[in-house]
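Reminder to self: tokens first, then the designed residues, so the page reads top to bottom the way the pipeline ran.
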């Protein structure tokens, strides 16, 4: 029998929240992410042997998001074997495009492949959420669920976990600017208010429903009208240099809407068609280049696939 001893995977970056959907909405990008190699070992336990492309991430399994996820999975499997993990980060920590989620989702998917798929997709999301708990203090699923499932994803409920795939228009593009400063998710969660005024809640859940309806109906105008966040963005945007300018120029360049990606500092814009997405990329570049802060730009479709295996030898 063929026994898989090693798996190489790609784990995508993700945009979470998507303006109005704090902790419940997200989608993966198609061309940005991490790679990982996961191998079986005869000895029990988890060894992280290599982390490339990022500084300051711990090799110690108990302190590393992918290590924690792997330990939980092996414990659940109740086996005497262990795993060895190599991580090639394409996403910097504290970027707002799901760095910890890519590591968590990648290892969850990879270990499931190595051990002949004992877990359901929902279980993989639950394991990956433990990585998010370590990274941010809260086991949010709005990055790991789309990173695992692919496509626009709704976390309808956390208790019990209920993850729903939302179809989205084929011509929907995302442009992201990633200022090279670190905003820790834990910090940008701590500054949020515990309570929401009822009138803000009404506006926000109207937008969430509108966004989901717009995605399903291919109604780009409705998507645009719904990309509004009256609760989180006013507080968090203060942490992001140039946020208002990026948003203004992106909308002028044709964006349906523009907001903070996850907990920031990345900023995303959605648009119809690649041409507009490219114009937005130029507008973001324009808005940021005077600020004296390095940045990266990404342009992507809403990626239909989540974590996936890669051919062995690339
Ligand atoms: N929903 C999470 C937050 C996403 O906004 O804190 C973090 O990427």
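Designed residues (314 positions):
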């Amino acid at each position: 029998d063929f026994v898989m001893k090693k798996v190489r995977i790609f784990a995508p970056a993700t945009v979470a929240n998507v303006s109005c959907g704090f902790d419940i909405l997200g989608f993966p990008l198609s061309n940005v992410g991490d790679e990982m190699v996961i191998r079986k070992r005869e000895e029990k336990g988890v060894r992280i042997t290599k982390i490339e492309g990022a500084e300051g991430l711990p090799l110690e399994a108990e302190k590393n998001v992918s290590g924690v996820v792997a330990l939980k999975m092996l414990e659940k499997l109740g086996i005497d074997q262990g795993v060895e993990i190599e991580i090639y980060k394409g996403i910097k920590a504290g970027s707002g495009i799901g760095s910890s989620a890519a590591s968590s989702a990648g290892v969850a998917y990879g270990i499931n492949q190595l051990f002949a798929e004992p877990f359901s997709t929902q279980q993989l999301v639950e394991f990956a959420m433990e990585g998010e708990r370590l990274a941010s203090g809260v086991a949010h699923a709005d990055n790991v669920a789309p990173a695992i499932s692919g496509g626009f994803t709704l976390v309808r409920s956390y208790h019990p976990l209920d993850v729903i795939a939302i179809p989205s228009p084929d011509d929907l593009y995302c442009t992201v600017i990633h200022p090279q400063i670190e905003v820790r998710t834990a910090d940008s969660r701590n500054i949020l208010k515990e309570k929401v005024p009822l009138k803000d809640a009404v506006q926000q859940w109207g937008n969430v429903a509108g966004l989901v309806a717009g995605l399903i109906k291919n109604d780009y105008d409705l998507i645009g009208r719904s990309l509004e966040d009256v609760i989180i963005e006013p507080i968090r945007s203060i942490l992001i240099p140039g946020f208002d300018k990026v948003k203004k120029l992106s909308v002028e360049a044709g964006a349906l809407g523009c907001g903070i990606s996850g907990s920031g500092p990345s900023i995303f814009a959605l648009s119809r068609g690649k041409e507009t997405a490219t114009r937005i990329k130029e507008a973001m570049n324009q808005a940021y280049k005077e600020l004296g802060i390095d940045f990266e730009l990404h342009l992507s479709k809403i990626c239909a696939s989540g974590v996936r295996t890669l051919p062995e030898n690339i």
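The first helix runs from residue 65 to 77.
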